[in-house]
Amino acid sequence: MEITEKKQVMKVLMRDIIVDISWANISKKYFGKSRSWLSQKMNGFDGNKSETEFSEKESQTLKNALLDLAQRIEVCADKI
Q1: Residue 2, domain member (yes or no)
Q2: Which residues lie below 8 Å from residue 22, measured CB to CB, with a gap of 6+?
Q3: pLDDT tens digits, residue range 3-59?
Q4: What is the C-alpha separation between 42 and 23, in angstroms, rounded?
Q5: Which of 35, 51, 52, 64 could form a disulfide with 46 if both were Cys (CB 3.0 to 4.6 A apart)?
Q6: Does the residue 14 lie in any domain?
Q7: Closest to 50 measured CA to CA, from 38, 41, 61
Q8: How far, in Å, CA of 12 to CA of 28, rounded?
């Protein structure tokens, strides 16, 4: 179950922020899915140990979620 070199695991791409984000909230709010679903996608393996990855649409949803969160953090920071 080795991930191919071409395949980038989302977890690796976001290592700088991975511990600072509530992935459970992002999963529910933006995807309508469970935290385990998002975790499996980010790790590159589903519950059956089969390779999985984000679809183009899911990648865009995650990107938009992070941009929304960044904007909300900036608004809060500006109020300080």
Answers
A1: no
A2: none
A3: 555 567 788 888 888 888 889 999 999 999 999 999 999 989 888 989 988 999 999
A4: 10
A5: 52
A6: yes
A7: 41
A8: 21
